[in-house]
């Protein structure tokens, strides 16, 4: 069969990583990005602070301002604005990231590694009785569905041992002690596991896997499932 649009490149693939704080998401995302580029693929790494729009300084500046509003906030401001506001602000950020960065890249044939999938936010809000779970799911429902989602599974205690330190956000602002981190992250993990039951995620128990083993396991899955050779 001949290609009806010979100038249109094959669509890029979107690959994302979910897991609790300290599971190794950023580590794996960076390795996959590097490996894809080393293998000659076109790939970008998209994270919390990706605000560069190719060749569009005005949009870049706008997205950068939104990023600052959403992520560079102090605790008193966060408290004053409240949970519903932050859910919608995060949804605004994810909406622009999807529309202005991810979708154009995929259409141009560039693969996208997304470090900060929104599922962790959903898991956080699922723990919060003040915000309806349906609302939280709805505001992210329009985002592009990744072609492959890795779920890095590890207990909160083991994740803490890897991280060493953590922020107030990573205890759900419940306290500053190790047990606060462990209690909160174990609830988030439980919510992620509920999501996992719906299917579609490639789940890896990374408790006893070093960085290289996690990477090679994920790289094999990219080849198997998306025919991307590394
Ligand atoms: N497989 C692994 N084994 C041991 N330590 C790891 C592994 N993967 C990542 N780490 C370390 O654990 C910490 C958290 O990793 P990171 O990738 O930042 O997690 P996340 O992005 O999920 O919060 C970092 O210090 C990182 O170097
Ligand atoms: Mg990270």
Which key phrases capture this entry?
230 residues; globular; binds adenosine-5'-diphosphate; single chain; binds magnesium ion; Rossmann fold; five-stranded parallel beta sheet
Task: Tell me what the structure shows.
The protein has 230 residues and is of the alpha/beta class. It has a single domain (14-221), classed as Rossmann fold, CATH 3.40.50.300. 53% of the residues lie in helices and 10% in strands. It contains nine helices and five strands; from the N terminus they run βαβαααβααβααβα. The chain has helices spanning 25-38, 57-71, 75-81, 83-107, 119-126, 133-140, 156-163, 178-197, 211-226; strands at residues 14-18, 43-46, 111-114, 148-153, 201-205. A five-stranded parallel sheet has the order 2-3-1-4-5, sandwiched between helices. Helix 1 (25-38) packs across helix 9. The longest helix has 25 residues, at 83-107. The protein starts with 13 loop residues before the first strand and ends with a helix. The mean pLDDT is 92. It binds adenosine-5'-diphosphate and magnesium ion. Residues 25-26 line the site of magnesium ion.
